[in-house]
Amino acid sequence: MSAQAYDHAMGQTFVRRVVTGIDAAGRHLITADGAAPNTIVTDTVAVSEVLWLDGPLPSISDDPDNADSGFALEPPPGGASARIIRMPGIPAGADPDSTWLRVAGDSESKPGMHATDTLDLMVVLEGCVVMGLEDGERVIGPGEFVIQRGTLHRWRPADEHGWTYFVAMLRPDIDANTDIVNVKPVTTGDKAVRRVVTGSPVVDGGAVDAVSMSAITMTDVWHTGGPLQSVDQGGDPDGPWSLVPPTGGLWFRLVELTPAPPFEKGWHVTPTVDVDVVLRGRVVLELPDGVQTELGPGDVVIQRGTNHRWTAIGDEQFVMASLMMDATAVNARM
After folding, report:
1. For the whole prediction, is pTM greater than 0.90?
2. 68, 120, 197, 250: which has the fewest Cβ within 10 Å?
3. Sorted alphabetically, which InterPro entries does this protein's record hold (predicted)?
4. Selecting from 3.30.390.10, 2.60.120.260, 1.20.120.1730, 2.60.120.10, what CATH number does the domain 3-333 have?
5. 3-state DSSP: the chain helix, strand, coil percent, rounded to 5?
């Protein structure tokens, strides 16, 4: 998708965010629909923070927004941020090496090179970006994923066009003591979903695991196996496929739906807080009692434990990135 088409699809709002929830009467409904409050848009840069957690998931129904304005680089231990960011391209006549995104404390010899105490789960929505690592540079394009595991890295535009990406930054909680289960080291697979996983060595290639049923395909991009205790935690699933992550863990997946009439088995509830980012196509999100809304490229849904189903519409395959964070430990305390 071109930057122009992407901007048209998003209309006047940089990012439309739909938040679901359950009210005091037990009704499943849409609690917010529009721009997230922590959003800035300038002529060159735009940022929308669609989710912020100060620490381990406090409640499946907790406010998804940061009470403070501004954009902290890293969330607190056990916390998370999820943002969609738009960056400019290379200015006319500029040296590409002069366009590395600078960060505080970087060096003149390696401008922009930095590391964070976070596991970053990223997917490019439109445009292309160059990721610089210690072993060289890689161009990441639309629909391609990066799993950044606390390693040194830097970013710059790949060309004169802007680029837009989604990133969830997850801060480890070294005090988390839940067992890590059903995770095996990441390898390159044959699935048609490219992911670049940083580390030693860097893994760059197709994903390994996917499941298809009826009109849906879900490809696993990352799996932590439990609460995040270190930035390099996680990999591919090892064991029977599961829709929901293990206690305190998360899934990061690519979900593809073929347009088809709604089907009753599509209704489901998961004990998770989900961040769903539409990459391509259109879909109807439906909740009980006739509550529904239509979503398109660039839209984000924060799904908070509600009964729902997805129905792809139109002639194009629907594709979204889905981050599912387990909240069963929260429910057990409530």
Report:
1. yes
2. 68
3. OryJ/VirC-like, RmlC-like_jellyroll, RmlC_Cupin_sf
4. 2.60.120.10
5. 5, 45, 50
